[in-house]
Design goal:
The complex is a heterodimer of chains A (221) and B (266). Chain A is mostly helical and 221 residues long. Chain A contains nine helices and two strands. By secondary structure, chain B is of the alpha+beta class. Chain B has a four-stranded mixed beta sheet. A two-stranded antiparallel ribbon of chain B has the order 2-3. Chain B has helices at residues 18-27, 84-88, 114-118, 144-147, 154-158, 169-186, 226-265; strands at 4-9, 56-62, 69-75, 94-96, 102-104, 125-128, 135-138, 164-168, 193-195, 205-209. Classes of the chains: A mainly alpha (221), B alpha+beta (266).
């Protein structure tokens, strides 16, 4: 029997909320951190403006710390699901990495292996974000509360790793922004993060494995 | 401009602490407001450098040599030629002066405290609110406002024992070496040495010591923190290139993808 295609719920309310909270916190932290490194932003790094930047950076920390906490408390199922998915890697992921350039540059979809709810690139991004969050958290804690308390070597490594994590996430953030907001092949992905829903056709072509999973569970209902 | 330096002859210091007072007077620093002076079993006071104490005499009761010695060390910024604090300071509040010392502009300081954590001598101090992170660093500047206007630092000016000298670095080195020879050959201080001549590219603060530097609690071989170079000269520039390359790559990707997809659709 022919059935009509219906939008599929891709992101729960909690997921969308923590995502946008993460966006706000990340941009605040990125900008107030970047002032130390970008010469054009130097006026925001020095003196009382610099003090204000450092205070805003700490406010950003509190917002960011709330992200995983809210996620775990209000949507533990999706949280566990996402964590499991980003740490599960198969041969399809290798295939994706090989086929991705032709797809993203030329729109050639033929060699792209079927993907789960998150494709390989998204998993890589998500994984980077999670690892960076831990690195930022630990090193940032040392830098905020450990100055003069912990050995200087530990502090120095913390500053270094904090910067490294910032470089990695800033570069990946650009990729994420580009692919989710601007890329001509990804129409619908921004809407899904704003409103939760995405067309069945999009899910079928971009997240085939997950699509089949969803359809199976619907049939069994 | 030839470099200047401060020569501190520890063998002549009598620990009167006039330098501590002169420093506070000239630089308008508060007295020891952190706690009342307590008896810690030493004449040493205050117990350590602080945001309001940029120099102080450290008292060491040294029993390692042939006889008991009471060693006095005038602590303060070493004004390294290879200064990690200058290299890590993100606001450029700490800078090299052509005369060879490290200046500090407090109004530029944002209070990050990196200088306190990267200094091989543990000199800069931070006045900080630990919760909000609001802070200011401070350290001895060789009285930069005096030194850059033809005056000698306040501590040198006041020293009644003649333990402190100030002048062209080469002259100070020559004077220090001569004094070491006197101590070694004429006075029986076999371990006498001149500290700071080559350490970290040469220090602005030179010491004539009667015992090994470690007896005074000074590092025998002070090290520029290796991570500073990796961080500032390798990772940071590479990171900027990586982020820039990512942005350019994405732009190219966007343009190619848009064109190709248009062609397909059209």
């Amino acid at each position: 029997m022919e059935r009509k295609e219906k939008p599929i719920l891709f992101f729960t309310t909690t997921q969308r909320f923590v995502h946008w909270l993460h966006v706000v916190a990340f941009i605040l932290l990125l900008v107030t951190g970047m002032v130390l490194y970008v010469p054009q932003l130097h006026p925001f790094a020095v003196g009382s403006a610099g003090q204000a930047s450092r205070l805003l950076h700490r406010i950003g920390v509190i917002l960011l710390a709330a992200v995983p906490l809210i996620y775990i408390v209000f949507d533990p199922r999706q949280f566990a699901r996402s964590m499991k998915e980003i740490f599960t890697w198969s041969s399809d992921d290798l295939g994706w990495l090989k086929a991705a350039p032709a797809y993203y540059f030329l729109g050639d979809e033929k060699a792209m292996p079927p993907q789960g709810k998150f494709n390989t690139g998204q998993k890589l991004f998500y994984l980077t974000v999670v690892v960076a969050l831990v690195v930022f958290g630990v090193t940032g804690f040392v830098m905020w509360f450990g100055k003069g308390v912990v050995p200087v070597g530990l502090f120095q490594w913390s500053v270094f790793l904090h910067d490294l994590a910032a470089i990695a996430t800033a570069a990946f953030f650009l990729v994420h922004f580009m692919l989710s907001v601007m890329h001509p092949l990804m129409k619908g992905s921004l809407e899904s993060m704003l409103f939760g829903w995405i067309s069945e056709e999009y899910v079928k072509s971009h997240h085939r494995k997950w699509y089949e999973e969803v359809m199976r569970s619907k049939e069994s209902e | 401009m030839s470099k200047v330096a401060m020569l501190i002859d520890a063998s002549q210091c009598m620990a009167c602490r006039g330098c501590q007072v002169a420093c506070k007077q000239w630089n308008d620093l508060a007295g020891w407001s952190y706690s009342k002076t307590v008896n810690r079993g030493s004449y040493e006071n205050p117990p350590h450098l602080s945001p309001q104490t940029w120099t102080r005499i450290k008292f060491v009761e040294y029993e390692g040599g042939e006889r008991f010695q009471w060693l006095f060390l005038k602590e303060g910024c070493m004004h390294c030629t290879q200064a990690a604090c200058v290299d890590v300071c993100p606001t450029h509040a700490l800078k090299h002066h052509p005369l060879g010392f490290v200046t500090f502009e407090k109004e530029l300081c944002n209070g990050c405290g990196y200088c306190t954590q990267f200094c091989p001598f543990d000199i800069p101090r931070l006045e900080a609110n630990r919760l909000s992170g609001q802070a200011k660093a401070s350290k001895c500047t060789f009285c930069q406002d005096r030194a850059t206007n033809g005056l000698i630092p306040a501590c040198v000016k006041t020293c009644p024992a003649g333990a402190l000298s100030w002048g062209e670095r080469e002259e100070m080195i020559a004077k220090g070496r001569a004094r070491v020879e006197v101590l070694k050959n004429g006075r029986g201080f076999l371990n006498a040495n001149l500290y700071g001549e080559t350490e970290l590219g040469g220090l602005g603060r030179l010491y004539v010591l009667t015992e090994r530097p470690s007896a005074y609690g000074l590092p025998e071989k002070p090290q520029y923190p290796a991570l500073t170079t990796v961080w500032q000269d390798i990772v940071q520039p590479l990171g900027e290139i990586a982020i820039g390359a990512t942005a350019v790559g994405l732009l190219i990707n966007f343009l190619i993808a848009r064109r190709n997809i248009k062609v397909e659709e059209g």
